Amino acid sequence: MSVLPATMKAVVIRGKYHIEVEDRPLPFIKEDTDVILRTRVAGLCGSDLHNWRFTDPTSGYILGHEIVGEIIEIGKGVKNFKVGDIVAAPFHCCCGICWYCSRGYFSRCTKAQCYGGPDLDGCQAEYFRQPLADSTLFPVPPDVKEEHMLLLSDVLSTGYACAYYGKRLLDEDREGESMEVKDGVAVVIGCGPVGLCAISSALTLFSTVYACDLNLDRLLLAEKHGAKAFSLDQIKQALLEGTDGRGADAALEVVGNENALNLALDLIRPFGSVSVIGQHIKPVTLSGEVLYGKNARLQFGRCPVRRFYPAALQILKQNPDLFDQFITHRARLDQAAKYYDLFNQGKIGKTVFVADHLPLEPR
């Protein structure tokens, strides 16, 4: 292997709506369970915008939590991978053996850390330190494109989790029935990248999927993914007409704000479910009268990627042409500030940063 440089390019947050591409020291092995990755592709996600908008009061760390990379160094405790392996990383690491991991709650592992925050630098950089490699990383299958695999790091797995929880909550008191029965009506609130993945996932679990968004371009994408798409002022009437006046069986909220959450509650039928995968970082006010009056069933929280990886991978493999169109923009790290701004304005869809040593074309 060639001699590594002393520094690397990295996308660093420096303040509200302010990022810089800076030279940073290369990461190094800190624990025996670490590996060092040379980044091949790294994603730009809506969660990155939370920090970019400076809702996190800390600055000076490297952003990014979606990566496919090549292992260039391994800790002496790593057994499942070797130098040269091409791997994908979920947006959080996990130990695989604690009480939470043993029950499939990987995102709440006692050693879990999310990349791209003040506690652990992210992967929008030329190199990345991956903790707990053996229990966290996935090898990239030879029949899956690298940028498709990147979607399993977060958005597709998260979209599937949202749909799964919405369906499971409906089925929990229906004896003799299971998740394998494809029925019911779901509505996806928000048609950005995670919302589109929730639509594709919900179509494997529900008979009919509706979707709504403020952005007309995103509604068109939602239709391509198989949803019946409507604007916010049309969605309730469309659902009532399509369900004999009941409303949706499940609402899948991927936005992460109070208005979206209250809309979800408004759109479900009595005993319906609301599955919330949008990242809520502010207090919300909900109507106890509505919650009680609808016997609403709620699920919130961070996706445990390892649990849903197999199902999400199957959706990816079954829809290669659809996901070829899913990533709309490819750029270099040097262009990060421009693409953060465009993504924040809703002018672009899923964007990936491609390493300088690779062509920009899909891989």
UniProtKB/TrEMBL annotation:
- Please give the InterPro entries that the UniProt record associates with this protein: ADH-like_C (IPR013149), ADH-like_N (IPR013154), ADH_Zn_CS (IPR002328), GroES-like_sf (IPR011032), NAD(P)-bd_dom_sf (IPR036291)
Entries under SUPFAM superfamilies matching the protein: GroES-like (SSF50129), NAD(P)-binding Rossmann-fold domains (SSF51735)
Name the keywords, alphabetized: Metal-binding, Oxidoreductase, Zinc
Known PROSITE patterns for this protein?
ADH_ZINC (PS00059)
Q: Where is the Alcohol dehydrogenase-like N-terminal domain?
A: 32-134
Q: PANTHER family attached here?
A: DEHYDROGENASE, ZINC-CONTAINING, PUTATIVE (AFU_ORTHOLOGUE AFUA_2G02810)-RELATED, ZINC-TYPE ALCOHOL DEHYDROGENASE-LIKE
Membership in a protein family: Belongs to the zinc-containing alcohol dehydrogenase family.
Q: What is this protein called?
A: Enoyl reductase (ER) domain-containing protein
